């Protein structure tokens, strides 16, 4: 270690350093120098422990919620601050949270390999062919849309119980033959990789820090969501008054909703909707509107967030409020 001045400037005063289970041995000399010269080092207790030998300034462990640390970080604007994060801070990480308040021009990010990259390298999977999902602080049902026959999925776990819960979900949906690989503490001395099937899941003592690799095998009777509008009626809870599957599919196709757009905005782009302002709404529109009030997807019962009408009528996985990034 040298006594050189920190490499960050007054402009880029906040350094976001990715660190893995191998600790300071796995980060670059520049990252080591930034940590050693920082007035304030912020991170989870695990991260602060991994970099313990380098830290000379003040330490701040993430509070709950982690956003409560932002005012303290911003107090040090212009002075060297380091935030330690897992792997790649901008892939389901804390980077997004930080840059909601701090301009990118004032930061320097030195990422490490993400859990996804490490898992893919262990299994020989190409990331461009894999669905990447985070179950950290999110509903387990968020993985359902990706459960297609033959699909490969990498999922960040919430805790050591997540693999068992996922295996149970797969069995319930007729995918008990799916292969699960649980990768624990990758990159460090405690790394462990174990494989099983959903139906035969018997792994115990799973480390809280783990990633699940899933290869989906669906039986003939498996519950698989279609990839086009017009989901099966059995996926909805209703009182018998449900818009016909074909009508829902045609209506959504005609509206052509865009990402994040409620039905009202989509309707304004439809010539038929403009005519409808001065005439009795067509039967399909009335049925779709009634469907949105009376039929609710099975998976959305726990979500109280208002959902755009087109989504509530034909999409079983709601976009619940997004939790903070994984530090």
Q: Number of DSSP helices?
A: 11
Tell me, rounded to a whole number, the average pLDDT.
Answer: 84
Question: What proportion strand?
Answer: 15-25%
- What oligomeric state do these chains adopt? single chain
Uncertain segments of ≥5 residues (pLDDT<50)?
273-322
Topology, number of strands: 12
CATH 2nd-level architecture of the largest domain: 2-Layer Sandwich
* Ends apart, CA distance between termini: 27 Å
Task: Please give a structural write-up.
The protein has 327 residues and is of the alpha/beta class. It folds into 3 domains: 99 residues, Cobalt-precorrin-4 Transmethylase, domain 1 (3-Layer(aba) Sandwich), CATH 3.40.1010.10; 100 residues, Methyltransferase, Cobalt-precorrin-4 Transmethylase, Domain 2, CATH 3.30.950; 82 residues, no CATH class. The chain is built from 11 helices and 12 strands. It has a 5-stranded parallel beta sheet with strand order 3-2-4-1-5. A 5-stranded mixed beta sheet has the order 6-7-10-8-9, with helices on one face. Helix 2 links the parallel strand 2 and strand 3. It starts with 13 loop residues before the first strand and ends in a 13-residue tail after the last helix.
